[in-house]
Design a protein that fits this description.
With about 300 residues, the chain is mostly helical. It folds into two domains: about 190 residues, no CATH class; about 120 residues, no CATH class. The protein has 14 helices and no strands.
C-alpha cells in the first residue's frame, strides 16, 4: 500500500478507494458515520497521539494516516464481528454473508495498515500481528459471553459485566499501547484504568438509551436492565419498567451515578502533570453532556408538574 499523497486531511473514502477499489463503496457504510464524513471512533486516535506525542514531532503525518486508516478498519471489523455474534442486522439490507465479507476485508486491511505503521515507526511486524490476533480472540470471547447471557433474566452477576464490557473494547487500549510504543513510552497503569473506566461508563449510558429496545427484543444482558429487574420479585412488564425508570426517577438516578463516576476517571487522568491533555478535555466534555441531560430531564418533569397541578 502506498501512502496517500495528500496528507493534510485524512479521508476514509480515499483510503478505501486505494485499499479496496472494487469494494470501497460497500465498505464505506461500515467505516463511517451515517453522513459518511467521519470514521467511527475517529477521536480515539487524536487522543492517543496528543497524550504520547505532545509536541507532534515523533509521529510524522504519514504514520498518523496509516494509524488512522488501520484503526478505522479495525473498529469497523469489530462492529461486523459483534453483529455476527449477536445475529443482529447491520443496515436495512445486509445479510450475514455480506457482513462476514466486510469483516474479512477490513481485518486484512487493518493488519496491512498497522504493519505499514510499524515499519515506519520501527516496531517489529510480528508484534503487530500477534497483538491483533490476541485482540480479536479476546473480543470474540467477550462478545460471545455477552450474547450467551443476554436471554437469561437470572444472569444477574452485574460485577462480571464490567470485565466483559472492557474486554469487548480492547482495541482502544491496543491503540494507546501502539502509539506509546512508537513514542518509546509505556502506557501508565492509571491511564489503562481510566480508559477501562471510561469504556465501562459509556456502555452504561448506552444501556440506558437502548433499554426499551433491549427489553422488547428479549436481550437482558445490559447492566441497567439487570439493576431494574432487582427492584421486582417477578419479571416486570414494560409498563412497570417505564414507571420505575421515568416516573420514579431511575433514569436520572442512573445518569447521576455515571456522571459522578466520571469524576474519578478525570482524577486518574490528572495524576500526570499533563492535566490539560485532550483525553482530560474529552472526558470532561462527555461528563458535561450527561449532566446537561439530567438538567433537561428534571426541567421537563418540573414543567409537566406545573401544567398538571
Amino acid at each position: 500500500m502506498n501512502t496517500i499523497n495528500n496528507q493534510n486531511k485524512f479521508s476514509i473514502k480515499n483510503y478505501l478507494n486505494e485499499d479496496f477499489s472494487e469494494n470501497s463503496s460497500f465498505l464505506l457504510q461500515f467505516c463511517a458515520s451515517e453522513v459518511h464524513d467521519k470514521p467511527l471512533l475517529f477521536d480515539h486516535v487524536n487522543l492517543a497521539l496528543d497524550y504520547f506525542d505532545t509536541e507532534k514531532i515523533i509521529i510524522s503525518e504519514p504514520l498518523v494516516n496509516e494509524l488512522k486508516a488501520g484503526y478505522s478498519y479495525l473498529t469497523a471489523s469489530i462492529v461486523c464481528l459483534d453483529a455476527l455474534i449477536d445475529n443482529q442486522p447491520l443496515g436495512s439490507n445486509l445479510t450475514n454473508p455480506e457482513i462476514a465479507k466486510a469483516l474479512s476485508l477490513l481485518l486484512v486491511g487493518s493488519l496491512n495498515r498497522f504493519r505499514n505503521f510499524a515499519t515506519l515507526a520501527g516496531i517489529k511486524d510480528s508484534k503487530i500481528s500477534s497483538s491483533i490476533n490476541l485482540l480479536f480472540s479476546d473480543l470474540a470471547n467477550a462478545l460471545y459471553e455477552g450474547e450467551k447471557n443476554s436471554k437469561l433474566i437470572s444472569s444477574m452477576d452485574i460485577q462480571s459485566d464490567r470485565e466483559i464490557i472492557v474486554n469487548s473494547a480492547r482495541h482502544v487500549l491496543f491503540l494507546f499501547e501502539l502509539v506509546a510504543t512508537a513514542c518509546c513510552k509505556q502506557v501508565p497503569q492509571y491511564i489503562c484504568d481510566a480508559i477501562k473506566d471510561f469504556i465501562y461508563l459509556t456502555k452504561l449510558e448506552d444501556d440506558l438509551t437502548d433499554w426499551k429496545e433491549d427489553f422488547i427484543s428479549g436481550r437482558y444482558n445490559s447492566s441497567f436492565l439487570k439493576e431494574c429487574f432487582i427492584k421486582f420479585d417477578h419479571t416486570p412488564s414494560i409498563e412497570e419498567l417505564e414507571n420505575l425508570i421515568y416516573i420514579n426517577g431511575y433514569y436520572e438516578l442512573w445518569l447521576s451515578k455515571i456522571a459522578i463516576d466520571f469524576e474519578s476517571v478525570k482524577d486518574k487522568l490528572r495524576i500526570s502533570e499533563k492535566r490539560e491533555s485532550l483525553l482530560v478535555k474529552y472526558t470532561d466534555t462527555y461528563q458535561s453532556g450527561i449532566k446537561q441531560r439530567i438538567s433537561e430531564i428534571i426541567a421537563e418533569k418540573r414543567r409537566y408538574l406545573e401544567t398538571t397541578t
